[in-house]
TrEMBL record:
PANTHER family in UniProt: LPS-ASSEMBLY PROTEIN, LPS-ASSEMBLY PROTEIN LPTD
Annotated region described as Disordered, given as residue ranges: 518-542
Keyword entries, A-Z: Cell outer membrane, Membrane
Gene Ontology cellular-component terms listed: cell outer membrane; transporter complex
Pfam families according to UniProt: OstA_2
Name this polypeptide is given: OstA-like protein
Transit peptide in keyword set: no
Compositionally biased residues, Basic residues: 533-542
Lineage: Bacteria, Pseudomonadati, Bacteroidota, Cytophagia, Cytophagales
Domain Organic solvent tolerance-like N-terminal, first and last residues per copy: 23-175
């Protein structure tokens, strides 16, 4: 027995009285002093102190051990080893043997052979293997450095829970968040708060989801945005692979091409950065912001191609295509838009409207100059209709038609090649009808001025007929196949309405009404008895 104030020099080993299974045992110390405390067995160990509790070892320069409460105070070069897997060092520590919990202060470091955690204060539960800090911490693994104000780390599952000013950094970029769950084994970060991920050329913003710091794979389940070098992709859910630059998005997709000022929207989208292909479908819409104008394009599917090697930039639209800008509107089955040379190709019986003109053919391509229609090439069953100031329809048909337009997108010249037919109304200087010309000629050139026929040249022998105003009837005023389809002309409003989902109308019934309807039996009325006015069902108010 050691009495209060007695001192033993040299090494003191195994001097614990009646050690239990969880009792902290003394392995050695340079000196040991018994302290006088009522009903307590307290000893002070100094110099090269070693203690043990099961498979846990504790080393320090100075320790005060209360064997009655099984608690320990440790000072100077504190080191705790748990089963050769976790090593914790610090300046001071308080160890509660019965609960197997340690409070370490000072220059704290935790090393579990996977990560190294440094902080000023650490609470460690040896039963749950959970380490907790709230004074700021720094974690280093093989490839990343993580910092936060608060953290919880499980040394078994290798999962961190971070809070406040969370930052994950490596040689390729950084992740910033307010809270984060991070697996040091799989290198995956999970978050449910606003998060920013910055890589070499890409920046991502998300509210919820997962990010792998090694593979650079992102899977965001909340409204998220990925900013690339030339593009911005936003959606309700977003998968993005940084190395391959592949993005898959769903829900209210917005894809922005910065250099072309093109915006794609839709229900779903896919982006392939290495090939420069973007696909949007489901209520798909393209808005190309031009100078003093905007080009709207919608279809079931929109595809954008930006080939950086060939410098070719194209847009494709498939199925039920509508197009609109201030001086041009049209509809077709599919189209391609070459952004590089401002040429638009329309396929499968397209129809276009521009400044009082209607054009139809099996296929059409137009050239834009300064974002205005300049040239139109029509092939196969081509038909051009121009409405003049007297509401007469000038008409031109042929196998091939080339139409030139003024800077104001008004019809200037029409060249017909093959099976040409035309009807044009002659008007004098006082804007009075003088007659109607009906001509058949395989090739012809027609010049317009202010939407009126100014002059016409027939390259082959024409079959022409002039009809005075009094002899003009409805049968003569139209070429075969004539159909004025202005009511089908798309507008900005019709395109926006087409891609905007209808609002969901929710009918809400009160519980009392539902219960009453369930309990009341259905009464069948005899067909021989006429229904009275009072028996009519009143509409249910919603």
């Amino acid at each position: 027995m050691l009495f209060a104030g007695s001192k033993v020099c040299g090494q003191a080993a195994g001097r614990t009285i009646n050690p239990g299974p969880n009792q902290v045992e003394i392995i050695k110390a340079d000196s040991l002093v018994g302290l006088n405390q009522a009903f307590m067995e307290v000893r002070k160990l100094m110099g090269n102190v070693s203690l043990r509790q099961g498979t846990t070892l504790l080393y320090c320069d100075l320790a005060i051990l209360n064997s009655t409460t099984n608690n320990l105070e440790a000072y100077g070069k504190v080191r705790i080893l748990q089963a050769d897997t976790v090593t914790i060092t610090g300046d001071t520590a308080f160890y509660f043997g019965n609960d197997r919990k340690a409070l370490i202060n000072g220059r704290v470091k935790l090393d579990d052979k996977t990560i190294v955690l440094t902080t000023k204060k650490l609470d460690y539960d040896l039963n749950s293997r959970m380490a907790v800090y709230n004074t700021g911490g720094r974690i280093i693994d093989k490839k990343s450095t993580l910092t936060s104000m608060e953290g919880h780390y499980n040394t078994v599952t290798k999962i961190f829970l971070f809070k406040k000013d969370v930052r994950v950094a490596d040689k390729d970029g950084t992740l910033k968040a307010d809270s984060l769950r991070y697996s040091t084994a799989s290198k995956e970060a999970f978050f449910i708060s606003p998060t920013e991920i910055v890589n070499k050329k890409d920046t991502m913003y998300a509210n919820a989801g997962m990010y792998n710091t090694v593979t650079k794979l992102s899977n965001f389940t909340g409204r998220s945005t990925a900013k690339m070098e030339d593009y911005i992709l936003t959606a309700d859910t977003l998968f993005y692979d940084t190395p391959t630059k592949i993005g898959i998005s769903k829900g209210n997709v917005i894809f922005v091409s910065r250099k072309d000022k093109v915006i794609l929207t839709g229900n779903q989208g896919r982006y392939y950065g290495q090939t420069g292909i973007t696909r949007v479908y489901g209520n798909a819409l393209m808005k190309n912001i031009l100078e003093n104008d905007t080009l709207f394009l919608t279809g079931d599917t929109l595809v954008s191609l930006d080939n950086k090697e060939t410098k070719v930039r194209k847009m494709y639209a498939y199925k039920k295509v509508l197009i609109y800008k201030s001086d041009l509107a049209g509809k077709c089955d599919s189209l391609s838009y070459n952004v590089s040379d401002s040429t638009i190709y329309f396929y499968q019986k397209p129809i276009l409207w521009s400044a009082g003109n209607q054009s139809e053919a099996d296929s059409i391509n137009i050239l834009l100059v300064n974002n205005k229609i300049n040239l139109m090439n029509m092939k196969g069953k081509s038909f051009v209709i121009s409405l003049d100031t007297l509401k007469n329809f000038n008409q031109v048909k042929g196998r091939k038609i080339v139409a030139n337009f003024t800077k104001e997108s008004k019809l200037e010249k029409v060249t017909v090649d093959g099976n040409g037919e035309s009807i044009y109304f002659a008007v004098d200087e006082k804007n009075k009808l003088t007659g109607m010309n009906r001509v058949e000629c395989s090739k012809m050139n027609i010049a317009f001025k202010k939407n009126k026929v100014n002059r016409i040249a027939f390259i082959a022998k024409p079959d022409a007929k002039f009809v005075p105003p009094k002899e003009i009837n409805e049968d003569l005023k139209q070429l075969d196949g004539f159909k004025w389809r202005l009511n089908e002309k798309p507008t900005k409003e019709t395109i926006i309405a087409r891609v905007t989902p209808p609002p969901i109308v929710k009918k809400v019934l009160t519980d009392s009404v539902l219960v009453k309807k369930e309990r009341e039996p259905v009464k069948k009325q005899s067909p021989s008895v006429p229904k009275s006015k009072s028996a009519k069902k009143k509409p249910l108010k919603l």
